[in-house]
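Quick entry between incubations.
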Amino acid sequence: MIREMRRIQIIGPKGQLDECIKTLHATSVVHIEAARPDAWTDAGADVFLKRLPIEKDKLIEKESLERAKERLRNLIFLLNAPEHWKAERVTAAELRGRIDALASVEERVKEARASMEGLLEELSAINKYEKLILGFAPVVSTLGGLKNFEIAGLTIERQRAGVLELLASEINKITEGGFELRTVDIDEAAIGVVIAYPKRFDAKIRCLLSGKSINEIRLPDAYAELTLLNALKLMRVRKAELPGLIDGCETALEAASNEGYGVIKGALAAIDDAIDEIGALDYAGQTRFTFVIEGWAPATDIAVLKDGFRRTFGGTVLVRDISIGKADFNRVPVCIDNPGYIRPFEVFLGALPPPKYGSVDPTPYVALFFPIFFGIMVGDAGYGAVILLIGLYLRRRFAHKEKPRAIASVLAISSVSAAFFGVLFGEFFGDLGMRLGVMRPILIHRAEALKTMMAITLGIGAGHVMLGVIIGAANHFRHHKIAHACAKLSYLSAIVSFLTVVCGIMKVLPRGTIAPGAAAFVVSMIALTALEGALGPIEMVKAVGNILSYVRIMAVGTASVVMANVANKIGGLSDSIIIGIIVAGAIHALNIILSMVSPVIQSMRLQYVEFFSKFFEAGGVKYEPFKKR
Amino acid sequence: MEKAIIALAAAIAIAIPAIATAWAQSKIGSAGAGALAEKPELSGTVIILVAIPETIVLLGLVVAYLIIS
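Done. Structure below.
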């Protein structure tokens, strides 16, 4: 349900503005709105309420807080989140001290990260070059005695091996035949090439190699001055040492994370709170001696708010409670608050803009119909039990994540409905319950009575759509929009009379109902056209499409039960009981996963498109109270 | 022969709307994927939009059923 809201004004001496903001923040019920000087005129003369400029020292403080926030966010990015952590409570007074105390953690973390990155880079380089050096070693050793010769190592892709001949020809030209070129297999993709040539041609050769886009091997700096053999020996030693050193860095990082993670999270929340408090100043207005803050609060919280201000300021700051006029309805923030069972279904409103203040919150209706539609579509006691277990597990797994927890709760609640309808349809993992003789259809045999199921779902659709129209009409009456309400009633009458005629033709109702039904339909359509214009008849066509759309409940449900029966049939074909159970179990598992997706989407769609379109008025402002993080 | 023609008519009644639904969903799905890349918070809306054309095939199903019965 949408809670009743009240407009509030908080007026006090300018000197108490900061304290007032802190008290507002602590009470956590006021949705602050920017002061509107244009709405405050002195008997049509000059505007006496002005926007309150934020003082320079506050802006400096805000910048400083934003810098601290950036620093802490960078620091937390370097940490590993501990398995169990809790944000420490950091008050505004403690904030500076706690941030300063984090300097030693920051230093250790940066040092450990830098060391670890260096070590990992070295390990990666060793792994890369070790193989190359091992490949080159025999070739270089045969050239080792050639003093005054320069040696260059290259890798060439195996598929480009043809370039070697060209390269040899070019080097031959430069060195006038005074060079040695050897190749060696490095791996499946690359060939290693070692070229020895007189030192005086070094510049020209390097120029040639760089111009040919050939990968020349360059050892890391630490090994550049060593001979290949010594470089290889050092690499082997370092390769043995590095994992231990990297583990040491990890341990240091973990210790710093355990020490600082909760504090940093707490400090970040405190910084956000402090920035919010400075930002809230921008919403305030001022007269010569007083400040004014305007906002909205739920009517039931006004007493708590007034009491909090009276205790803190002893009457020097006034909290005015102003009733809301119809002209304000578009500005009033919408606070949706439902009982525990219904609350998880609020998650479905997340895909839509909030409803307008004064309109209808559809959550209670969704909480009633969503599980029913889901239950009829899944309609299996065994599947319901499995989905209930999955829902409860996910609810526990995402205990601290609001949206996934709400979805898991919806799944768990809907699974009970699925199990209930499963009992009515006599289904337990498809027809397994019936095969074992423990279940029988109480209401209907879903897989066989398609026509009956179609009629039931169309009946549900007609009822659901008409309920939407009735809710819309009632809401218009509540707001004294008589013309709109009458249009809704004409719409309802048109739907009822149309269905009467159809049922009469199909002999569901007596033949005698056709003529009065048709007359009522014509009158309703005339009234609807008069009240809504050309859109009226179009709405009527849409309503018929909406009702037919509920056949999806039957279609998805039939697909589900047929697949479950197929699983049992295929499982039963196997000679081995174990293989049969495994095969049938795998198909049932797939069907359960599909049952958790398709019925949810289809049921959601029926709510959003078919039901909400009859009464839901989007375009409200979401209630966002000024509260601590 | 008559039964075969009835069955064929029912098959056509469901097959053509099914193709139409698939075509519409492919268009909405690709546009939705593009929208989600820009605004992940639209996921709920996109799921609903993708499910909307399914009404076409459901109407086909109803017509096919009426033909058979």
